[in-house]
Amino acid sequence: MGDEAGRDDPQKTVTVGVPKETREGERRVALVPKVIGKLSGRGAKVVVEAGAGERALIPDAEYTSAGAEIGDPWGADVVAVVNPPTAEQIGRLRDGQVLIGFLSPLTNPDTVRKLRAAGVRAFAMESIPRISRAQGMDALSSQANVAGYKAVLAAAEHSTRFFPMLTTAAGTVKPATALVLGVGVAGLQALATAKRLGARTTGYDVRPEVADQVRSLGAQWLDLGIEAAGEGGYARELTDEERAKQQQALEEAITGFDVVITTALVPGREAPRLVSAAAVEGMRPGSVVVDLAGEAGGNCELTEPGETVVRHDVTIVSPLNLPATMPEHASELYARNVTSLLELMLADGELSPDFSDEVLATSCVTREEEGS
């Protein structure tokens, strides 16, 4: 009855707006037609900007067929985005509106300040706590899966060697060896994908608890004797002594691999340097380094973020925003994350976020403190 009432009473219909992303190279969209019905069932109406899904290969007609309207998304009660809004876009928001998206609260505090000044309640997808109950909302993980997969394809494209072992009339070609540094979600997906392509895989991380996950994928575990488990599923910062020990050990290990994929990245921090110039110089000519931490400076000393360069006959690839290169599935996964978060806020056709909920309290980055 509550949902029916919410749909029949225009005063109780929550509107969710989906703007067209404007950042250069961005092809994802915040919501896809597959989730429209789910939101409609919770008493929400979705308004999509014309052409919002074009670069994700989703025409407007698919949205309208799913029950969405084409119109101005910035006047909606909730605006769902992929990237942080520009200053001009923040100017289109009003007091009391809800904004959901990747907002970079740790690295782009100016945007958060402007949103707070505008009276917007902003929920940062990267601030959702990594607890079991919030797995369906974990957009960092969903997009990291895409990045890990694409990183291996980039490595295979630039490699001068086959990934799988090949037996031919001319003889046998040994499989490539691939080392993944940092085995969070992206790293585990990279290991799994490289294994599927036939490479001999090895994983390394300073968090010893992930060793079993690495082995479960058929990969070897590189143990350097350094442990730095931290909070929230991330590694703590290494001491200077640990960092020096790690670099020396990695320099020796890296030279034995054809492909090195680095994924070590903690939100709000500069990426740790794991691959030194000396390590690159020691790799066999034709080897490849794919650095997924370019947005935070890179894990490789010779990385040029966003560029592909050759140093010491080793190709170093540092793609930015890899999920945008697979816009269809990346958008679908992200839309499910956003929808799951929205469902926590919707009750009987009304928008009523309960800030006693850990997920909402932690992810809301512009909420006024009680009593202020």
Task: Please describe the topology of this protein.
Elements (H helix, E strand, L loop, with lengths): L1 H7 L5 E5 L17 H5 L3 E5 L11 H7 L2 E2 L7 E3 L6 H4 L7 E4 L7 H9 L3 E4 L14 H20 L7 E3 L2 E3 L3 E5 L3 H12 L3 E5 L6 H6 L3 E2 L18 H15 L4 E4 L14 H6 L5 E4 L16 E4 L2 E4 L9 H19 E2 L2 E2 L6 H6 L9
Parallel strand pairs: 1-2, 1-4, 2-3, 4-5, 5-6, 9-10, 9-12, 10-11, 12-13, 13-15
Antiparallel strand pairs: 7-8, 14-15, 16-17
Helix pairs in contact: 6-7, 6-11
CATH topology of the largest domain: Rossmann fold
Which structural class fits the helix and strand makeup? alpha/beta
Report the β-strand fraction as a percent range: 15-25%
How many helical elements? Answer: 12
**What share of the residues lie within helices?**
25-40%
**Beta-strand segment tally:** 17
- Give the C-level CATH assignment of the largest domain: Alpha Beta
What order do the SSEs take from the amino end to the carboxyl end, as H and E? Answer: HEHEHEEHEHEHEEEHEHEHEHEEEHEEH
Shape-level CATH architecture of the largest domain: 3-Layer(aba) Sandwich
Kindly report the average pLDDT value. Answer: 91
- How many whole angstroms does the radius of gyration measure? 23 Å
Q: CATH superfamily membership of the largest domain, which one?
A: NAD(P)-binding Rossmann-like Domain
Shape: elongated
Poorly predicted residue ranges: 1-10
User: Going across the major beta sheet, what is the strand order?
Assistant: 11-10-9-12-13-15-14
Distance between the termini: 37 Å
Count of folded domains: 2
Summarize the main sheet: 7 strands, mixed
Biased composition (Basic and acidic residues): 1-11
GO molecular function: oxidoreductase activity
Pfam family, one: AlaDh_PNT_C
Function: The transhydrogenation between NADH and NADP is coupled to respiration and ATP hydrolysis and functions as a proton pump across the membrane.
